Amino acid sequence: MRTFALMLLPAALFAGQVRFARLGDFDGNVEIQMQAADPWMQAERNLPLVEGAWLRTGPASRLEIELDDGSAWRLGPDSQGEISDYSRLSTGQLITLLSLDHGVAYFTGEARGKDSLSLAIPGAQLILTNGARIRLRAESSWSEMAVIEGSVKVSSPDVEVVLGEGQTIRVDSASDARLVFIHKVEAMDPDQWSEARDKALYAPASANHVPERAGVADLDSAGEWVHTDDLGDAWKPKTAAGWAPFQNGRWRWYDATGYTWVGGDSWGWLPYHYGRWARRENVGWVWAPGDSQVFKPGEVYWLRGAKLAGWGPLAPGEEWAPSSAPRQFAAASTTYASWVQDATAIDPAGFTDRPREPLGVAVFALALPSPALVASRLDATRPVLRAGSTAVNPVLPGVTYDPPEPPPPDSADSRPPAVLTNPDAAEAPSVVTDSPEAVPPQTQPAQQAVLYAAPVYTGIVVMNPPEYPASAPPKPPRNPTQTATPAAPGTAPAPVSPSPVPRRPPLVPRTHPPDPAPVRKGQ
Question: What does pTM read for this prediction?
Fold first, then answer.
């Protein structure tokens, strides 16, 4: 049995800028757990997500996450997943591993350059090298990966294959036939929602003004681009009179960036973490994107008092020190909130004790003091698991778990080895199976399996879901309008997949449905 070897290397050799994903569109009951010892909390739009965060949805709920590389990761109803690896090496290479513990998930995107991009379900791992749209599903006794568009490499402890468009691989843990190859993609109800989101995020006009990818589509409907003499093109939001930046939202503490702004406006991602705000006569507040693509917690000046904190936007290009007043310091653009030592959140909502003389009760500061470290976060640890596997072990504060023993080698396994075709050939891979849904094995000469190298991870891949209700999620009903087309004798049924939609960049958009896929040899 082949396993993935993961090496624990000194973090200092590979440390890079911390990556943040955006919690975007969601409906229903959605909860987040940032770290192992943290309690579950309700989702907030524009909440920055970090490596190790767990996400779960309730019945009739769904969630979308936008990654900093422009990819989208979605969870359907009664689903739970983890951002297992989300790091940036000192060389700039992005390492991303998203895992689904149970339920349904969708992914649209691709790995760029030397980036590593993988998706995991119990028993298998999917590696993306080109643009693709993927659907994952994990049930109690089986899991499956379906390619709606593009192609991917699927790795398991037994075999690696190339999975093409309109094809599905099922990992059945309750049968000797570990891998089942299916020449179709069964339609599911959440498919239409995921396709609609792909359309909404595809090729926004604001992409011509900003290099960032997450949150760009929101700018088109929430404002307009105007030209200024000193800033060039700037974005002006559609807001009511008296509005100012950094008023609608709250600050949340992150170990990597300090107090970080969570914007309450639907568009409040890019304008608060990339670039700065400026106020211009006869125009109002505008956002200048700036040149840096580095995520910022929120570029503001701070006022610190005994029981209050204040802040306001720094001007574009301003190099500010607390020894002098900021350029845009004025009562109209400074927001206040109650503040106490060790607070992990600062919320201006409901604060009414606005000081008449701010500098009489507070002083300028570059940043507020950090809260004390909670001891329970040091006690909660997670076991080290192999990539492509998950375990349902609840994480409890104050309890330390030892890494599980690796499974013994399956020396007594009498199953015949899987036979793979050359991935460069036209034939689809054949997998030994007893499933009636799968294509019967083809008679062909034995070939040596072509193995693809697993992505190089620089840390421990951890996929240990937090405690979750034991009730099994209901299976979504199939769409009765999409069925397999009868095939000629001796051939496999033609694939049936959700209707194609325009892909998000860098995928090539389709302006009309593709021609029916021909039945390949071996299908």
Answer: 0.73
